[in-house]
Write a structure and sequence with these properties.
Layout lengths: L1 E5 L2 E3 L5 E8 L7 E7 L6 E6 L6 E3 L7 E6 L4 E6 L8 E8 L14 E2 L3 E5 L2
Length: about 120
């Protein structure tokens, strides 16, 4: 599967963004889909995931209440809605797919396919 993330940009603190991850080559229904973010000099940080069952989501504790991940099976894409953005949310955001659907994981090493990343900047 090939992944293409989009939707990043500049947003003011308190604003919202909706990132999308378009998949091609295979159906997202076959994968756990994860979102991660990374700032220069730091490891890739888990944001959240959605399981094969679209209702099965899990979010990083630091982001709970401000984000929501959803699947759009008709468009074969996964969305990351982020609200009340803070300057510390600025990062490159990546989507990823995991073939092992027995369980999800917050570890970046557990994902097999990655998109190219989309930059989110939070600044006034």
């Amino acid at each position: 599967v090939q992944l293409q993330a989009s939707g990043g940009g500049l947003v003011q603190p308190g604003g919202s963004l909706r990132l999308s991850c378009a998949a091609s080559g295979n159906s997202i229904s076959r994968y756990y889909m994860g979102w991660f973010r990374q700032v220069p000099g730091q490891d890739r940080e888990f944001v959240g995931l959605i399981g094969v069952n679209p209702g099965s989501t899990y979010y990083a504790d630091s982001l709970k209440g401000r984000i929501a991940i959803s699947k759009d099976n008709t468009r074969n894409s996964v969305n990351l809605q982020m609200n009340n953005l803070k300057p510390e949310d600025a990062a490159v955001y990546y989507c990823a797919a995991r073939e092992n659907t027995d369980w999800g994981t917050m570890s970046a090493d557990g994902y097999d396919y990655w998109g190219q990343g989309t930059q989110v900047t939070v600044s006034s």
